[in-house]
Structures are given as C-alpha cells and as structure tokens.
Structure prediction request, 231 residues.
Amino acid sequence: MNFKWIGPIALLAAIYLGDQIRINRPAHKYRLTVEVETPQGRKSAHGIVAVHPFRGYSGIGPTRTVGDAVFVDLGHGRNLVALLAHIDRTLELDGINYVALRAYTAASGKRVTFNEMNRQTGTVPVTGALIPVLLTFADPANPATARNVPPDESEAVLGKGYRLHAISAEVVPNGFWPLDVGGVLGEPVTRGIQARLPWLNGADNPAATALRAAGLPGAEAIDAKATFTRK
Prediction:
C-alpha cells in the first residue's frame, strides 16, 4: 500500500465534509408551540423546525424549512393542527421560513436580521398574519374530514369550551448538526405528524384532499404534503 496518499485523501475528505456541513447546517431552529383552552384545562404541543438558507455554489436559491406540522391532541377525539403554511389570498409555503424572525421583530419593536436569529432569547408571541393555517380533523385517519380553524373563530369550529389560547416561537440552539440527536448535542427537528395522520404517505395526494376538504384556496398549485411535513 502506498501510504503517501493517505494524508492528502484524508485532507480532501475533511474539506468535503466541512463544506457539506457549512452548506446544510441550519441557520437557526425554533420551537413553535400551540396552546388551546379546553374544558379539561389547557392543552399544548410543540415542534422544533430548522430554517436553512441556500448556501450552494449555483447562484441564488430558496430558503427552506425542515420539520413537521404541530398536532395538538385536545382529548375526546378533538385536535388542532398548525400547518407549515399560510394564506396570502391562496396557500403559500414560504412564510413559515420567517415566522420566528418576524415574531422577534414584532416583539422587540426593531428589525431583527436573519443572521441575528441565533442570538435571540426568550419566547415571543406569534399573532395575526404570522399564525399558520390551522386545521382540525373529525377523524385523523380520514383526510376528507379536515376543517379550517380561523384563529378568532376556533371555539365555533372546535366546540364549546375549546379555543386557541396562544401560539409562540422560541429560538433554540442549532446544536452540533448533523449530530443534534438530543441532550448536549442539541435538540433535533421534531417528527411525528405521519404517526398522527397515517394517510400522509398514501397515493392520490391525500394531503391535497385534506386541504380541499378544509376549503383552503390553491391546494392544487402547491406541494400539498409540504404543508404537513418537509425534509
């Protein structure tokens, strides 16, 4: 074996690995928490999502979010799901990339830049147009039972005594990506929506079926599954 090549090969491997980490490491992560008042007390759930800017070499590319929609089990067969989507006349997928940034800007009263997000602390409210699309399923196993839940009319849809209390965002450390598997290494992106909505990977675009059933405009013009989960 010619050992003289081991050093250069190891160096090239280290450079490549380091560059892949630079390209793919999230710019920041945030925890999105949804709280709902119920007759049995307040119920809540949260999910951690990661926001990735484009760092490739092929010019300008999109910022993207990695994570899952937040499913809140309200008990007694009720639920509330905060999608990775907003309404801007029709459904759109890009707003979720900037929910935390805009929430911190609104809370501080001054512009927070994308590069400053990792330095933000504390929990901030997500209100108004920043609130993601909210759905509920009469039967989580059936996408056709989805209904839209306007934030200010949540009790009318969810039932008496059930209403949206608050949605909040909190920046969390990136951790040692891609080794952010929990504990001191950092909190990983939250997964689990597919266990809650078992049809999500089914044929015939069941995610679009859910969006149409909820009466949301523009379901056919987007990747409907990306409103529930993104990789």
Notes: The first strand starts at residue 28 and ends at 38.
